[in-house]
Design goal:
Structural class: alpha/beta
Radius of gyration: 25 Å
Number of strands: 7
Strand content: 5-15%
CATH architecture of the largest domain: Alpha-Beta Complex
Bound molecules: uridine-5'-diphosphate, magnesium ion
Length: 316
C-alpha cells in the first residue's frame, strides 16, 4: 500500500431529509477517497432532518471512524449548516458537496488537481446541468447578475460542489443565504478563485429543498446581490456607501431650495410649490443617510475585532 502523505482532506456535506441517497453517496465517496493518497474525514451536517437521515448517518459512522456526524437542533438552512461544517472540519483542503447525488464524487480528484495549481478556492461549474428548465433560466439570470455586480467571472456561483484551502473556510463568515456568494466573499478577502467543469446528475430522490421553480428564492435573488456588494465592497467603509448616496440627495435638495430662494427674492410665492417639499425631503434623506454612514463607521470600529492574519500571503 502506498503511504498516505501528510495532507488531510475534509468532505463537508450539509443535508436536510436526504435519507434515500446517503448510503450510496457514502459508498461512492469512500471509494474515491481511499483511492487518493490523502488522509480524509467526511463531515455530515444533519440540518434538522425528520426523515430518519440521522439514523442512517449513525449507522455509517459505526463502520467508519473517519466519518463525523453533526446533528443540528432544527433546520437552520444550508448556509448555517456549511458554517458549522467549516468550523468543525480539520482538513488542509475542504470539499463541500450536496447530499442528493447530483454532485459526482469522482470529480474530487479533478478539484484537488486544480486547487493544487495555486488557487485558494475552486468552484464547480455544472456546465451540463440536469435540472428543470425554469431553474436553469432563473439560475442563468442570477449568475450573470452576480458576475457583473461582483466582477468575478464565474459561470455557476450556486454550485454546492467546491474545494477550498483551509484558510478560506476558517476565515469566511457564511450566514443567512450567503453560501451562494462564497466565491465573491473569498475574492474580496484576496483569495484566488477559479472554476472547473463538473459532472452533474439529475436528482434521484425527492425534490429540491428549494422547490423546482426556485420562486421562493426569487426576492432573495434580488436582495442578496445588494447585500453582497455592501459586504464585499463597503463593509469596512460604510460612510462611503451611505455618505456618497446621502451627499447626492443633500446636494440635489439644496440645489432645489436654492433655486426656490432666488425665485422668492424675485417676489414669487413658493409656500405651496411641490418643488419645495421635494427639496426639503431630499435634504432630510441626505442628512439621514450621511448620519447612517457615520454610525456604521463607529460600529465597524467598535465591533471589528476580526483576525486579519489571513490577509498575509507570506512573511519573508
Ligand atoms: N440543504 C440543507 N438545508 C436546507 C436545505 C438544503 O442542508 O435547509 C442541503 C440539501 O440536503 C442538499 C443541499 O443542501 O444536500 C442542496 O439542496 P438542494 O439539492 O435541495 O438544492 P438545489 O440542488 O436544488 O440547489
Ligand atoms: Mg440538488
Amino acid at each position: 500500500m502506498s503511504e498516505k502523505i501528510n495532507q488531510e482532506i475534509s468532505i463537508v456535506i450539509p443535508l436536510f431529509n436526504e435519507k434515500g441517497s446517503l448510503q450510496e453517496l457514502n459508498d461512492k465517496l469512500v471509494d474515491v477517497l481511499t483511492g487518493l493518497n490523502l488522509t480524509y474525514e467526511i463531515v455530515y451536517i444533519d440540518d434538522g432532518s425528520d426523515d430518519g437521515s440521522l439514523d442512517i448517518l449513525k449507522q455509517l459512522k459505526v463502520s467508519n471512524q473517519q466519518i463525523k456526524v453533526i446533528s443540528l437542533r432544527r433546520n437552520f438552512g444550508k448556509s448555517a449548516a456549511l458554517a458549522i461544517g467549516f468550523q468543525e472540519c480539520q482538513g488542509d483542503l475542504v470539499v463541500t458537496m450536496d447530499a442528493d447525488l447530483q454532485d459526482d464524487p469522482n470529480e474530487i480528484p479533478n478539484l484537488i488537481a486544480k486547487i493544487n495549481k495555486g488557487y485558494d478556492l475552486v468552484s464547480g461549474w455544472k456546465k451540463d446541468r440536469k435540472d428543470p428548465l425554469v431553474k436553469l433560466i432563473s439560475s442563468k439570470i442570477f449568475n450573470i447578475t452576480v458576475a457583473s455586480m461582483t466582477g468575478i467571472k464565474l459561470h455557476d456561483f450556486n454550485c454546492g460542489f467546491k474545494i477550498y484551502k483551509k484558510e478560506v473556510v476558517k476565515n469566511i463568515n457564511v450566514y443567512g443565504e450567503l453560501h451562494r456568494f462564497l466565491p465573491a466573499l473569498a475574492h474580496q478577502q484576496g483569495f484566488k478563485v477559479t472554476e472547473v467543469v463538473v459532472k452533474h446528475h439529475a436528482r434521484k430522490f425527492d425534490e429540491s429543498k428549494y422547490g423546482n421553480l426556485g420562486l421562493g428564492r426569487f426576492t432573495n435573488y434580488l436582495l442578496d446581490p445588494i447585500n453582497v456588494i455592501l459586504l464585499t465592497k463597503y463593509a469596512r467603509k460604510p460612510a462611503h456607501f451611505f455618505g456618497n448616496l446621502g451627499l447626492m440627495f443633500f446636494l440635489l435638495g439644496s440645489g432645489l431650495c436654492l433655486y426656490l430662494t432666488i425665485v422668492w427674492f424675485q417676489g414669487q410665492a413658493i409656500g405651496s410649490r411641490p418643488l419645495l417639499f421635494l427639496g426639503v425631503l431630499f435634504i432630510i434623506i441626505g442628512i439621514q443617510l450621511i448620519s447612517m454612514g457615520f454610525l456604521g463607521e463607529i460600529i465597524v470600529r467598535q465591533a471589528d475585532k476580526k483576525e486579519t492574519r489571513h490577509y498575509i500571503k507570506k512573511i519573508i
